[in-house]
Input
Amino acid sequence: MKNTLAIIKPDAMIKGHLDNIRKDILDNGFSIIEEKTLHLSNEQACAFYDIHQDKPFFDELVKFMTSYECHVMKLEKEDAVIEWRNLMGATDSQKADLGTIRQKYGTDISMNATHGSDSNENADKEIRFFFNG
Ligand code: IDP
Ligand code: MG
Output
């Protein structure tokens, strides 16, 4: 069994999709090991997304992620990282496959409803960022 970090982002939280997305996660065989709702500070959002600090969308991303509450979850499943990214769909909600979470609950390439780690190494780092390992 492997873990990954999932975040339900402010756009989906504001629209009231927390329970829908949690249900999709559980229906797809993930266990939610730990979870909490929090409102990210500017400092936390900058630190979490530091790999994107040189990207043109960085300021927009930090502003978005601090605009309202997020719900963060430590998920467990075999091949959790890839399985969660598959369930989320493509980064751009407009291009995400039908039935994926980003297609169902996101809006565009910025407000795309959820985050998922992109490797086992980053999953461990991101889980430690929010939880005690
Ligand atoms: P990912 O979330 O699918 O791993 P990344 O490339 O790691 O995608 O980007 C991190 C987040 O930054 C995205 O989920 C999205 O919210 C935002 N983002 C990515 N590309 C753009 C863009 O071109 N414009 C605005 N926001 C973007
Ligand atoms: Mg990414």
In short: The CA atoms of residues 30 and 84 lie 9 Å apart. DSSP finds seven helices and four strands in the chain. The helical segments are 10-14, 18-27, 42-48, 58-65, 80-88, 101-105, 120-130. The first helix runs from residue 10 to 14.
